Amino acid sequence: MAPAPRSQLVALRERALGEIAPDRNLEFKGIVPNLFEQARRDPRLERDIIRLQKERNAIILCHNYQMPEIYEIADFIGDSFGLSRMAQQADAEVIVFCGVHFMAESAAILNPDKRVLLPVLYAGCGMADMISAEGLCELKSEHPDAAVVCYVNSSADVKAESDICCTSSNVVQVVRSLREKKVIMVPDKNLAAYAQRMVPEKTLIAWEGWCPIHHGLATGELDSIKQQYPGAEIIAHPECQADMLGKADMVTSTSGMLTHARSSPAKEFIIVTECGMSNMLRREMPGKKFIPVCQICPDMKKIDLFSVKRSLEQMQFEITVPRRVAERARLALERMMAIAP
Ligand code: SF4
Fold first, then answer.
1. What is the domain-level CATH number for residue 75?
2. What is the pTM assigned to this prediction?
3. Given the CA of residue 126, which atom of ligand 1 is nearest to it?
């Protein structure tokens, strides 16, 4: 099946979101997070998936924010970029990426010899959709002396127009490494503001984009939870707004949260990011307590066991990136890997 053009994917996703969340992400705030905490396991479907996985010589990658039942069938659980790199080392012909569209694109860019499948085609990202390659080119023409840093949470087209990529864990290192004093940073203005605070010697020009999930987290909720758990360490994701990050003991990526919680002597942590992360941390460290201050990302909850099985059966939905775009985007990713392997 030929992959659908990106504009069609965005339209498809908008429609799907409209059906399940007419008020976009806001109403997911009201859903009892418990609904997303229990793994809805299905032994028959799991057996089918394992069988198909062997037949297809596939690996299943699962982002930290996915539903708990997906953790149970995954070969690797992690953050988007870590998973793509993991896939590079795996001896598999097929990658089933349980995440969102831009993640599957990155996996396809870094693994051109493997087939990459996204089980639900319209699992997208509200932040990645806030910028286009054309928009970035316009901004570049206004600042011809600036380097362009692109957060990995962006489309392949946008990466291809960028000098270098960054993740939420290496953004400071990447910005510091640049020769240019002026730096355009896309698409997340909160990540850019965080980098600006950490690297004051540079001038960052931020794209007006944000993650609807992290940007919407409010400090009021954090304050009341902190009152209940005064000894808990607060760990927040840098996609949150500055006032939230100002209250955190540690600001780090999802993989950084895992590493830190493992090594910290603390027994209680308040986790400020998408709700799925606390599920993952509880699974990894049952002896510690993780209290979420979170919102649910509807795009991250679209994949279920049935769609993974269908994906392997029908080899859908294959995500490909046009060769010219992939080559330029790979360069931006490789420059990042050279600085922060
Ligand atoms: S949590 Fe935010 S950045 Fe991640 S997929 Fe959802 S909208 Fe995109």
1. 3.40.50.10800
2. 0.90
3. 7
